[in-house]
Design goal:
Four copies of one chain form a homotetramer. In chain A, 72% of the residues lie in helices and 0% in strands. The first copy, chain A, is built from nine helices and no strands. The first copy, chain A, binds a DNA duplex through α1 and α3.
Chain lengths: 189, 189, 189, 189
DNA sequence: CATGAATGAGAGTTCATTCAT
DNA sequence: GATGAATGAACTCTCATTCAT
């Protein structure tokens, strides 16, 4: 597969992302993507064999983009805040239409997929480190950083889900962030 | 709609619940339900016009069943523990097969549906009361019971989702429960 | 499946036989049959799931028809002649267009199919009996009736194949019949 | 078409023969051959325009190879035996995978093709000569050598077909060979 | 009310064939 | 000559939905 092929694949993934954003995961057909890409039916099959495959490519491409800088030069409290703000954006931003599709995908294909699980683990590690650093430098109070990290991530996940299901105001998210910071002895000034 | 009709509808809903439990939400076809109910294709349409409609009827029927006793005669700490244990069951029990379907449904039809949201609100109120009572009787420490209640519920929701997506051990859930109780000044003895 | 269904199935098989006759086996698509039957795409699938299944039903229906009377009251020589004449018809009759399809089917699905093999075995038994009777009543001379029966059937099969592949004149078939009878001591007068 | 072209054509035919051997005739696609030859899709079309064309080239190439020596210095009985043994090999040898494809081809394209018929005629002539010689030298008894030759060839053809369709043991073939020799007054010692 | 045969739109998939490079 | 990406027609199969009985 040549250089041009990779370009085309990228193009398809890009267009497909829009489609998944609009229609979710399960509702998307090969035809939808073919039409969005303005290529031929058979042409798509040169690159992907199913919507699942395409969707996974979309996820993969997102993963590459969403890497954030580590900012490990900041104070633990600020780093935590930065982390939570980042998550808040994910929760609140209705622009991330893709999320519905991601959840649909997750529930449709269940556990066998570490595609999405990977993100969680990375976040967990990052968060745990921040808390450990915070505790070490007396900025935070926490007996079990790992468990606390889990707790925050679960709560954030819950918020995400709720944001998708019902409507969640930005205030509610802020409220929760403040509360979470409180649980490890931090206060927003 | 006569008495017999209501009976039949109930029967269909019952059988349909099994189907949704086995196959999720999106994968279920009218045909599947027709076969499970051993009624005719046309017959089903006399009662329901889509799998969505049927699934909503299933949800409705579940709502009626799942009401739990309030046990307001117990101490706040025990009531909280009871509440969390109840939620733990929901998370851990793989017997609640329907949950996958519920999430699929939620993500497929988005916010416009308060069908599921109702449960959350009820839980919220219940939990808030418990915490308020706990604080009032000096068993618990919490400045913002409502926010704390939200936090716990979000974390529980996150756990549920994770349980569905990946695998979550009972220990992790216990860990989280203990942690949550700690955040409001309680300890499991 | 009711009485009417069986009728319809028969109807489909009948129409399908014509199609297979015209187009062979492999070239026939579900669409061809749908069109020949003037039913809907989905309708055909109520009765059959593949051209293979339909073709086997066609074979089955032919089997039922082609049963010939046993005429065991005749003299062995005449019975043999009757048998061979019957086979000759199969060979010569170009009206049996289906045969091409049958061979195609045989070669496409190989040995695992006793659908066609059954005919051979039945013929073998019948022919062997005739020869044994012929020998017992001194009309025929043959040391190994079974082997002779096999030989005739193989030769007849070869004739059939040749009839399909190239062109075979009726005279050639007659010639062969006479020769075969000669090998067991019989002569056409 | 240059020298290199002929070479390439030969190469394609060679590779294609393997493919036809494995997959039969009808199941082979241009793509299969392209892949087997590791050439480009378009490249194949420079030499052949259809699988039919390629298959015919395969047949042609086989014809050139399969010529056998005449061994006319042997006694007629031995020559006949040699001939029949040769045929037996064709029947029994499952290594001649191409045969299925040949039959498929024959039945798919019917009589208009003398491609395969040629072999039969050559065999017929050879066999007839053997028998005539045998009769002339009193080794054999046969009133109509040509008809007898036909008979044997048809029986052999029938055996071949049966070998492809069902399973035929080597014993059965030996049995038949012995029987055939018996019909012209010969016995295997 | 109830049936289930029938419909037809539409999804997935494959392949011969072309054509710009 | 040679490539292989691209096309689009054709095929299989499934399902929601209707309708005569």
């Amino acid at each position: 597969m040549g250089d041009k092929s990779i370009q085309k694949k990228r193009y398809i993934v890009e267009k497909a992302a829009e489609v998944f954003g609009k229609k979710g995961y399960k509702n998307v057909t090969m035809k939808d993507i073919v039409e969005a890409c303005e290529i031929s039916r058979g042409g798509l099959y040169l690159y992907f064999n199913s919507t699942k495959e395409i969707f996974e490519a979309v996820l993969e491409s997102r993963r590459l983009i969403s890497k954030t800088e580590d900012s490990s030069d900041m104070q633990p409290g600020d780093r935590l805040l930065a982390f939570l703000e980042e998550k808040k954006q994910e929760i609140v931003s209705s622009s991330d239409y893709l999320r519905v599709a991601i959840y649909e995908y997750m529930f449709a294909h269940g556990e066998q997929d570490s595609m999405v699980a990977g993100d969680f683990d990375a976040d967990l590690q990052r968060l745990e480190e921040i808390i450990e650093d915070g505790v070490a430098s007396d900025w935070m109070v926490c007996e079990a950083p790992r468990i606390a990290a889990y707790n925050m991530l679960y709560a954030l996940e819950g918020l995400k889900v709720s944001a998708q299901t019902g409507i969640i105001s930005e205030e509610r998210v802020d409220e929760q962030i403040e509360y979470m910071m409180g649980t490890i002895g931090l206060a927003l000034e």
